[in-house]
Write a structure and sequence with these properties.
It is built from 16 helices and 16 strands. By secondary structure, it is of the alpha/beta class. Helix 8 packs parallel to helix 9 (217-233) and helix 14 (388-415) runs parallel beside helix 15 (429-440). The longest helix has 29 residues, at 135-163. The relative contact order is 0.08.
Length: 476
């Protein structure tokens, strides 16, 4: 909220310094976080606890500065993980914070850790006259802004409370008949979609046409009509799609599995351009297994996987990401570095996913290691070492949950007589299991009303245009 005000702080010397925005603070402190983040100290509980507490106080101090509140904190201790130091050896720094300017605080933190401040130095500090925006003027404007914000928040809260749904039984009772009626009204549209897909497959030898569940069926029909029109006008290039799977969604390009994705909201020229060069992607696709095998071999036979819903990238770009990480790990070994002794000789029971440079370094809810291709090898290997137990637990949980989810999915669909049962990409097997189990405890109250409907498990209640009932997984 405060960074939108673009406020400026008047320093003691009369020169003003623009407050850093939240995004600028996060970017500037990113190298610092990589040195002190508690997750990097999994085997050292004392250092982890101290860093966790100090990070909380630093965050509170920066928030106070952004909101023009005075806050006093003691010197903050941090243990730093540094390169070229023995396992278990850390540098302890004490950072004294006593300024009133976020820029000054960020610079002090970075200097204390011997981290470059070049990013902060490049952020302009346009000077203002001291009397051009006095403290009383600012406080008056800020108080007015705060009052308006609080009023808007209160109104929004009341609206949300009014809209809040007490329980799923009442909601299904009120909306199931409406959903079935909408579903019947869209029958002709669904038939048209099926007819258009059949025409494309039979006429041009396309293997399959699929589409994301989140799109309105009318939008799918419109996209298919556009594709048929394009194919009719440019039949000479449609041979490029023979034997291919076409997917309508939010991405235009060739997926890592070789599927041709067409973004529904793209103009036809974008589709035409892709179809013309689609065969060029095949050479990159054939290289992917070799790169994945090479990466696996230098990471102790860990399995290279791709998330079903990972960010869409071209095959050529994915090869580039794999090469980047392979080179980084090769350099790591070339400098004489090794895996920590605590890492098993074989990581074949674990999985890793390589994503674009801006991706996170994390363990997914299904137990996969997720790494950006730009992650330094020493950080990646340290992260794997510190999170093996977590990954093992999640992998085991997922291997059990996916079978339980499959059985419950079948039982719910049959017990309630659903036409279809789907879930949002973000609903993990564990969440789906919880949802299905609670649905089954309400069989007597929901059975008659859900019968003949399509149910979509997500994070909200809604009845879609084509007659799909959306429910949150954690319904009341």
């Amino acid at each position: 909220m405060y960074c939108r005000l673009n406020i400026r702080c008047i320093c003691a010397n009369g020169v003003t310094s623009r407050f850093l925005s939240t995004a600028e603070i996060s970017t500037a402190l990113r190298p610092f976080y990589f040195s002190v983040h508690p997750d990097l100290f999994g085997k050292y509980p004392e250092q982890r606890k101290i860093n966790e507490q100090s990070l909380q106080q630093l965050s509170a101090f920066l928030e106070a500065q952004q909101s023009r509140r005075r806050m006093v904190v003691p010197p903050l201790p941090f243990y730093l993980r540094q390169k070229n130091t023995a396992e278990g050896e850390f540098k302890l720094v004490q950072i004294q914070l006593n300024g009133s300017d976020t820029r000054d605080t960020v610079v002090k933190v970075l200097n204390a850790c011997n981290i470059s401040t070049s990013y902060v130095d490049k952020i302009p500090q346009a000077p203002l006259k001291e009397d051009s925006f006095s403290k009383p003027d600012f406080m008056k404007a800020y108080q007015r802004y705060s009052t308006e914000f609080e009023n808007a928040t209160e109104i929004k809260k009341k609206v949300e409370e009014k809209k809040a749904i007490d329980n799923i039984v009442d909601w299904v009772y009120e909306n199931s008949a409406v959903a079935r009626e909408k579903y019947e009204l869209m029958s002709a549209t669904r038939d048209q979609v099926k007819s258009l897909i059949d025409h494309l497959c039979k006429t041009y030898g396309i293997k399959e046409v699929k589409y994301d569940n989140g799109w309105n069926i009318s939008h799918i029909r419109g996209a298919l009509q556009s594709l048929v029109s394009l194919a009719t006008q440019h039949s000479n290039i449609m041979d490029n799609l023979q034997g291919k799977t076409i997917a309508l969604g939010q991405f235009t390009g060739v997926s890592l599995d070789g599927d041709v994705y067409l973004n529904i909201i793209d103009v036809r020229n974008e589709w035409l351009s892709l179809i013309k060069k689609v065969r060029q992607e095949d050479s990159a696709l054939t290289m992917i297994p070799s790169y994945e095998k090479a990466l696996s071999s230098i990471l102790r036979d860990i399995h290279i996987r791709r998330r079903k819903f990972m960010p869409k990238v071209s095959a050529a770009l994915y090869c580039s990401h794999l090469r980047q990480l392979i080179t980084s790990i090769g350099d790591f070994y070339g400098r004489g570095n090794k895996f920590p002794p605590s890492v098993p000789e074989s990581l074949s029971k674990y999985e890793i996913v390589v994503e674009p440079e801006a991706g996170p370094l994390m363990v997914s809810p299904t137990g996969q290691f997720i790494t950006p291709s730009s992650c330094p090898a020493d950080e990646l290997i340290a992260y794997i070492n510190n999170h093996l137990d977590e990954a093992t637990l999640l992998l085991t949980e997922y291997s059990i949950n996916k079978h339980v989810e499959k059985a419950l999915h079948k039982e719910v669909k049959e017990r309630f007589g659903l036409l279809e049962l789907h879930k949002d990409d973000s609903i993990t097997p564990g969440l789906m299991i919880s949802c299905c189990q609670r649905l089954l405890t309400r069989t007597d109250k929901l059975n008659a009303n859900l019968r003949g409907n399509i149910l979509y498990v997500t994070h909200y209640y809604s009845v879609l245009t084509e007659g799909i009932l959306c429910i949150p997984w954690n319904f009341k």
